[in-house]
Specification:
With 170 residues, the protein is of the alpha+beta class. The protein has one domain: Alpha-Beta Complex (endopeptidase fold (from Nostoc punctiforme)), CATH 3.90.1720. 23% of the residues lie in helices and 24% in strands. Helix 2 crosses helix 3. It is globular, with a radius of gyration of 15 Å. Residues 1-17 have low confidence and may be disordered.
Length: 170
C-alpha cells in the first residue's frame, strides 16, 4: 500500500515513466471546454480531468513520428507507431493502461459507449480515439497531402463498424 501511494505521488509530481516511455506531466492548455488544435499540437482543456490532459500531452509527443505497422506494441517507446500503438501511447500517458493494446484488445477496453472526455473506436485492424473533441488517428484524414502517421485531426469519423468504448469514469 505504501509503495502504491509513493508511485502515485511520483506520477503526479514528476510525470511518469512507464513501459519504456517517459510521459509529460505538463503541457499546453486552452480555456475552452474542448481541446484546441494549434499547428498540429493539441491544447488540453484547462478544466479537463488530469488523465485527459495527460493523454493529450502524451499524444502530442507522437506528432512527428512516422506510421509503422506494429509500432508501439512491444513498448510505449518506439520509433514509429500504428493506430493502436498511438492510442495506447496516449492512454498510457494518462495512466489508463499499463502496457500497449492492439486493435482487437481495444474492442474490449473499458466500458461500452461514448465517454464524456475520451472515446476509443476499435475494430479488427484499426483503432482511433476522440479525446476532448479532437480525433487522434493515423489515417490521412483532414487533407489528401497527409500520409499515414499519428496526428490530431479536427474532422469527425463515423463509428460504423467500430466498437465504441471509453475509460471508466471518463
Amino acid at each position: 500500500m505504501r509503495l502504491a501511494i509513493s508511485l502515485i505521488l511520483a506520477l503526479i509530481l514528476c510525470g511518469s515513466r512507464l513501459y519504456g516511455a517517459t510521459f509529460p506531466d505538463r503541457g499546453p492548455t486552452t480555456a475552452s471546454s474542448r481541446a484546441a488544435l494549434q499547428n498540429g499540437v493539441a491544447l488540453a482543456p484547462a478544466d479537463a480531468p488530469r488523465a485527459v490532459k495527460r493523454a493529450i500531452w502524451a499524444a502530442n509527443q507522437l506528432r512527428l513520428k512516422p506510421y509503422r505497422y506494429g509500432g508501439g506494441h512491444a513498448s510505449f517507446h518506439d520509433n514509429g507507431y500504428d493506430c493502436s500503438g498511438t492510442v495506447s501511447y496516449a492512454l498510457g500517458g494518462a495512466g489508463l493502461i499499463s502496457s500497449p493494446l492492439n486493435s482487437s484488445d481495444f474492442r474490449r477496453y473499458g466500458e461500452r459507449g461514448q465517454g464524456r472526455w475520451i472515446t476509443v473506436y476499435a475494430r479488427n485492424g484499426h483503432t482511433f480515439a476522440v479525446i476532448a473533441g479532437l480525433r487522434l488517428d493515423t489515417t490521412p484524414g483532414d487533407s489528401s497531402r497527409y500520409r499515414w502517421a499519428p496526428r490530431w485531426q479536427r474532422s469527425t469519423r463515423g463509428p460504423a463498424g467500430f466498437e465504441v468504448r471509453h475509460p471508466v469514469g471518463l
